[in-house]
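Exercise 7. Given the encoded structure of a 405-residue chain, write a plausible sequence.
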C-alpha cells in the first residue's frame, strides 16, 4: 500500500502510549521459555515479537521468522540447546542474506548440531537440539551483538554457566548490557567487563514479573517530529529515566535540535519551542544503529549538514540502510556520500515535490521519512512495513495531526 502523507505547520501536541520494546520483549520470551516462572508485562505487539512467540510453541518442523533478526539469532541458540527439538529455521528473502555464520560456528564448536540448508553462513538452518555443556566460547564481536546476546540468553541453562570471550571491537554494546540487565532482573547472575562475559548457571529461578519499557527506537520518530516542528509538546509512555535501551541516548542527541526531555512518572515529555539554527550535526552511532535513519531525515528536513559515523552494521540490517538512505534522500534533492560505515550530506534548501519514498521492506525507512511530511507532502511505498516493530505507527501519527491517505 502506498500512502500520501501531509502535515500542516501548526504546533504539534499530543500524548501516545508506545508499545513495549521489541528487543526487551524478545529477550524475555527466550528466557521465559527456559524459566516459566517469569511473567512479562507490556509485551511488544510488533510482528517480530509475535513471530518469536509463535516459534517458541514449536519443537519440530519449519519455523519461519520472516524479517525478525533477533528472532533468527536468539532462536538459533535456543533450539540448538533444547533436547528433542528438530527444527528448520528460515525467514524472508532478506533474512536469507543476513549473515549468521559467526553464531553457528560458535554453537558448533560448543557441540551444537546445526547445518546450512542452502548457502553456508546464511539461513535457513537445520537444527537438532541437544544438551550442551560447554563452559567457554570465543566470538567475533564486531558484526552483530545479537550473536552475543543469543549465547548469553541460553548460557544460564548450562551446568557450569557460560564464559563468552569477545574478539575485536564490540559493536552495539548497549544491547549486550540490556541482555545482562534483563537476565539479572530475572534472577540470573552475570558479568560483562574487558571483553569477557560470564553467565552463572541458574537451574531454577524465583517467580518474577518483569515490565517491558516502551520502545526507545520507536520514540525516535517523535523526537524527529518535535525537532522539525517550531512548537511541540509530545508525551510518550511508558518510559523510565534509567533505561536498559541504548537508544535512550536520543534525549541527549535531540537537545542539539532544541528538543528537551522531561521524565514524569512513567512518561517522557518532549518539548520544543521556537526555531533553532544548528550549523551541523556529527554523531557516532556505533552504539545505537537503529536511530541513524531517523537522525538523517531530521537533518534533511531542517537543512542541517549531517555527518554520521559508526554505521558499519547498517548494510546487514533489513536492507542495506546506507544505500537506501542515499537513494531516498537524493530524491528530495542534493547528494549523499556514503562509505562503508558513514554517511554525509548537506541538504538542499528546496525540496523536490511529488517524491515517492521506497521502503525496501524496512520499517525504519517508512517511519524515519514520515516526519518530513511537515516540510513537504510526499508518498511512502509499502507503508505496512512498519508492523515489524510498530504496528500502530500510522494511527499514532494521525493523532498528532498528520494526514495519511
Ligand atoms: O539485540 C537487539 O535487540 C538488537 C541489536 C542491534 O543489532 P546489531 O547488534 O546486529 O547491531 C539492533 O540493530 C537491533 O535492532 C536489535
Ligand atoms: C535491525 C533491526 O532489527 P533486527 O536486526 O532484529 O531485524 C531493527 O529493528 O532496526
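Solution.
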Amino acid at each position: 500500500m502506498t500512502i500520501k502523507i501531509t502535515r500542516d505547520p501548526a504546533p504539534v501536541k499530543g500524548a501516545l502510549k508506545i508499545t513495549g520494546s521489541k528487543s526487551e520483549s524478545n529477550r524475555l520470551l527466550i528466557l521465559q521459555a527456559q524459566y516459566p516462572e517469569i511473567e512479562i508485562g507490556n509485551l511488544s505487539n510488533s510482528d517480530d515479537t509475535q513471530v518469536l512467540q509463535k516459534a517458541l510453541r514449536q519443537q519440530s518442523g519449519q519455523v519461519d521468522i520472516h524479517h525478525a533478526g533477533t528472532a533468527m539469532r536468539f532462536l538459533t541458540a535456543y533450539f540448538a540447546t533444547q533436547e528433542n527439538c528438530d527444527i528448520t529455521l528460515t525467514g524472508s528473502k532478506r533474512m536469507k542474506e543476513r549473515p549468521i555464520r559467526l553464531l553457528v560456528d560458535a554453537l558448533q564448536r560448543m557441540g551444537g548440531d546445526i547445518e546450512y540448508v542452502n548457502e553456508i553462513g546464511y539461513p535457513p538452518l537445520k537444527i537438532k537440539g541437544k544438551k550442551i555443556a560447554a563452559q567457554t566460547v570465543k566470538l567475533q564481536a564486531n558484526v552483530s551483538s545479537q550473536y552475543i546476546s543469543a549465547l548469553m540468553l541460553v548460557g544460564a541453562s548450562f551446568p557450569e554457566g557460560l564464559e563468552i570471550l569477545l574478539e575485536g571491537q564490540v559493536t552495539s554494546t548497549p544491547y549486550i548490557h540490556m541482555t545482562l540487565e534483563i537476565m539479572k532482573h530475572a534472577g540470573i547472575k552475570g558479568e560483562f567487563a574487558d571483553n569477557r562475559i560470564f553467565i552463572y548457571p541458574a537451574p531454577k529461578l524465583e517467580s518474577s514479573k518483569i515490565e517491558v519499557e516502551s520502545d526507545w527506537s520507536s520514540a525516535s520518530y517523535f523526537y524527529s517530529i518535535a525537532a522539525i516542528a517550531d512548537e511541540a509538546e509530545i508525551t510518550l509512555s511508558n518510559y523510565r529515566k534509567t533505561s536498559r535501551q541504548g537508544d535512550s541516548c536520543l534525549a541527549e542527541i535531540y537537545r542539539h535540535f532544541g528538543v528537551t526531555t522531561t521524565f514524569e512518572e512513567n512518561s517522557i515529555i518532549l518539548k520544543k519551542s521556537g526555531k533553532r539554527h544548528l550549523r551541523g550535526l556529527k554523531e557516532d552511532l556505533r552504539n545505537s544503529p537503529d536511530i541513524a535513519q531517523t537522525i538523517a531525515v531530521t537533518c534533511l528536513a531542517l537543512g542541517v549538514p549531517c555527518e554520521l559515523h559508526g554505521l558499519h552494521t547498517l548494510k546487514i540490517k533489513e536492507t542495506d540502510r546506507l544505500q537506501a538512505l542515499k537513494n531516498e534522500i537524493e530524491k528530495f534533492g542534493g547528494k549523499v556520500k556514503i562509505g562503508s560505515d558513514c554517511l554525509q550530506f548537506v541538504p538542499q534548501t528546496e525540496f523536490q515535490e511529488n517524491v515517492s519514498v521506497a521502503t525496501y521492506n524496512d520499517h525504519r525507512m517508512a517511519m524515519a521519512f514520515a516526519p518530513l511530511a511537515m516540510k513537504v507532502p510526499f508518498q511512502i511505498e509499502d507503508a505496512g512495513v512498519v508492523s515489524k516493530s510498530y504496528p500502530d505507527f500510522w494511527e499514532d501519527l494521525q493523532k498528532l495531526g498528520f494526514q495519511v491517505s
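Remark. The chain is about 30% helix and 25% strand. Students should compare their own answers with the one above.
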